[in-house]
Amino acid sequence: MQAEVAINALIKQFFAAFSSGPGLDERIDALYGLFVPKAVVVRGTEQWSVAEFVEPRRTLLAGTSLGGFSEWEEDCSTTVNGNLALRWSRYSKSWTQAGQLHTGGGQKAFSLVEGDEGWRIVSLTWRDDEITP
């Protein structure tokens, strides 16, 4: 139970980082502390380090092409086994672009480990659903 509370807080912080607006840099900077140093992020056949994943999103969210971007977890399933955990997340997102509202979502799978600094993300994989304008 205590592990799930800590994991829920970590995942909530992860999703909250992906919102445009005030405090963006602080939220994005905090993402680095949610991952182990050599964590990997994978989508399809593409693979990134944490910095390779985070920094383009910082640029995108700080820019003017997307307005009101927000991403949030809709549903989840977490399995904890000792100091290892798997989290399946169903997420949604919305934003405006060129004056038009867009929505989307998908699935994210987090592999986590508990160490001296608490729970951290070891790997993140995801699949986006079709985006609806």
Strand order of the largest sheet: 2-1-6-5-4-3
Q: Percent range for helical residues?
A: 25-40%
Largest sheet: 6 strands, mixed
Task: Label the structural class.
Answer: alpha+beta
Strand content: over 45%
Q: What is the radius of gyration?
A: 15 Å
* β-strand number: 6
N- to C-terminal distance: 39 Å
Shape: globular
**What is the residue-averaged pLDDT?**
94
SS summary, helix count: 3
Could you give the order of the helices and strands? Answer: HHEEHEEEE
Low-confidence stretches: none
Task: Please give the structural blueprint.
Blueprint: H1 2-17, H2 24-31, E1 35-43, E2 46-48, H3 50-62, E3 67-81, E4 84-97, E5 100-115, E6 118-128
Parallel strand pairs: 1-6
Antiparallel strand pairs: 1-2, 3-4, 4-5, 5-6
How would you sum up this structure, described in words?
With 133 residues, the chain is an alpha+beta fold. Helices cover 28% and strands 51% of the residues. The chain has helices at residues 2-17, 24-31, 50-62; strands spanning 35-43, 46-48, 67-81, 84-97, 100-115, 118-128. A six-stranded mixed beta sheet has the order 2-1-6-5-4-3. Helix 1 (2-17) packs across helix 2 (24-31) and helix 2 runs antiparallel to helix 3 (50-62). The longest helix has 16 residues, at 2-17. The protein is globular and about 50 Å long. The termini are far apart.
Give a brief description.
The chain contains 3 helices and 6 strands, in the order ααββαββββ. By secondary structure, the chain is α+β, with helices and mostly antiparallel strands.
